[in-house]
Amino acid sequence: MSFDPSQFPFMEIAFWVMTVLALGGGIGVVASKNLFHSALFLIVSLFGVSGYYVLLSAGFLAVVQVMVYAGAIAVLILFAIMFSRRPMEKVSQANHQWWLALLMAVLLFAVLVGIVGLVDWPTDGGPEPAAAATTVQQLGVAFLGSYLIPFMVVSILLSVALIGAIMLAREKLEAEEMN
Amino acid sequence: MQVIIDFLVSLNIPYVTEGVARFIVLLVFAGVVAVAAPAGLIILTWLERKIIARIQDRLGPNRAGPFGWLQAFADMIKMFTKEDITPANADRASYNIAPGLAVFSSIMVFAVIPFAPGFAGTYMNVGLLYIIAIGGLGSIAILMAGWSSNNKYSLLGAFRAVAMLLTYEVPMVMALVIVAIATGSMSLVAVTEAQGSMWYVVSMPLVFLIFFLSGVAEVGRSPFDLIEAESEIIAGFHTEYSGIKFGLFMIAEYVHMFALSFFAAVLFFGGWQIPFINVATLPFPIGSILGFLSLIVKVFFFVFVMMWLRGTLPRFRIDQLLDFGWKFLVPLTLVLLIASAFVVRLFSPGSSTGIPVAPGPLSGLGTAGEIIALLITNLVIAVLTMVMVASAARRSRNQALRAVSGVEPMPAGQPGK
Asked: Coil, strand, or helix at residue B315?
């Protein structure tokens, strides 16, 4: 019996670990009775997804996923939870429409499985993509080149959101001053 | 590192191929870093006590061992033997995970630091972003700790911590972006190598200042130590922690400070570069050792600067802190970012990685021209900022004087009702 380390399925093991993280975290988000725990499970799930990006050699995407979702958005969610209701209380996450949501989720899952099964995916991906060192530059050139208009639209959307948030906060302040 | 891998392969041990040798070397390297970073804590706590004591005209620890250096071990043993208390209404899972997560996030950043020529955990090409991403995990650990303690002071401390971290992450990220623009890469190895001709602190002193200031705030050290302002909110997010769990938070804080010093040295002070000596071309053991020593000297210099700041400056108030971040550092860094991008583009030598980019109009002047232009940009922006801050200060002082002298200053922009 010989052991060939180059045949050891590192990638498969990593894939299943990431799957457990992503799906387990997702189930935790829905099943947890505590809103704060749900948010923490969401972070675990997002980590699993960023692990997939690493396995796909998309390092930039993986790091941005952790930075934007786990580092910024999840922290804001945690923040909002702490401010919104009595944070140590256990509340039921489901309302009377849970069966409808479940039905929709199952339908969506069926559609996705159908698509994945029907499409004839190219198993031979053609030539290997260029060295990863250039991907950030390629992204930048793509954003400011062929995808300039979508990029600008997203920028305007974000600016609108930013200004809107400031306006909401300001209005409240002036109303307080009036009283 | 490649040298050691080649050596292992050349031994012809069964099963030890190139890949396995790389795995073993990286595992040992990670182990050494993960042990050495918290072990540096022992030196750091002792140094901090001694330096702060000297600044305050005291002697500091001087009983346990020569110069009191055994004091750190005594502290450690005390920490280990103390009772570990969990509040009755705490959220146990989060409460216990938080200290570990804090240490984890502070040690993880060492993966991308180039310690010597050819010695880095990983040559990740998005190293700069990775630092920020992993740093964000630290704020999650703080939130978890503050919330799960079920204590109002803990929660307040966590709120403050996260508000501060979010505020100072913005100028820090933008300072890192300026470095990435100047280098043309986000890999810390590439950043170090690009500083072979000139350290970035020379060409971009203002960017370095902004980076270091927001870094000190990120680490939550004095004068930005509002997270654990004893006089206001007891000990902040780790009020309820005791024993080794409190020790873990302390380790996380010191490792974080250590990591920040490493980043300041690598990003702006040339990493393992030594002026006038090309370390990378020296033969294997000498070049690596010299490079590592050069890096460590710079790191301890920054550690000293942070202790010096703590010994001399009073603490900010929370509103001053947020004002300083959002109204001063963020606009200043934005202006710097735009100006630096413009200057670097002017001197860009054109496409280097296969993407067609036209060379900049001043590319004939080379790296020296770029360094001088960046330096001039930094200085001009610094002077303009000084002038603006001075005039704003004068305006507010005049207003205060008028208020005292009884002449009511006209409130600007308020229509009569």
From this structure: coil
pLDDT score for A133? 46
The CB-side HSE value for B142 (13 A sphere, CA atoms) comes to 32
Query: For position B417, what pLDDT does the model report?
Result: 45
Assess if residue B370 is contained within a domain: no
Contact A48, A25 (CB under 8 A): yes
A26 touches chain B (CB under 8 A): no
* Domain identity same for B166 and B225: yes
Distances (CA, A) of B205 to A68, B80, B175, B302, B306: 29, 43, 11, 15, 18
Q: Please tell me the distance from the alpha carbon of residue B161 to that of residue B163, in angstroms, as a whole number.
A: 6
Q: Is the CB of A40 inside 8 Å of chain B's CB atoms? A: yes
For A63, which of B93, B133, B162 is closest by C-beta distance? B133
Give the three-state DSSP class for A5. helix
Whether B356 maps to a domain, the answer reads no
Q: Is there a contact between B112 and B124 (Cβ–Cβ < 8 Å)? A: yes
Query: How much is the pLDDT for A110?
Result: 93
Quote the ipTM score: 0.74
Q: Is the previous residue joined to B223 through a cis bond, with omega within 30 degrees of 0?
A: yes
Closest Cα in chain A, distance from residue B195 (Å): 19
pLDDT tops 80 at residue B229: no
- Checking if the pLDDT of A1 tops 50, the result is no
Indicate the pTM of the whole model: 0.82
B355 to A70: CB separation less than 8 angstroms, yes or no: no
Spatial contact of B167 and B322, defined as CB atoms under 8 Å apart:
yes
Q: Are residues B212 and B310 in the same domain?
A: yes
Q: What is the pLDDT of residues A24-55, one digit of tens each?
A: 988 888 888 777 888 888 888 988 888 888 88
Last residue of a domain, one of B292, B322, B352: B322
Residues B10 and B153 in one domain: no
- In a domain? residue B372: no
What residue numbers bound the domain in which B25 lies? 1-77
Q: How near does any CA of chain A get to the CA of B132, in Å?
A: 7
Mean pLDDT calculated for residue range B376-397? 87
Q: Which of B259, B289, B322 is the last residue of a domain?
A: B322
Identity of residue A150: P
CB-based contacts of B51, cutoff 8 Å, min separation 6:
B304, B307, B308, B311
- Residue A66 has its nearest CB partner, among B91, B124, B133, at B133
Asked if A35 and A81 count as a contact pair (C-beta separation under 8 A), the reply is yes
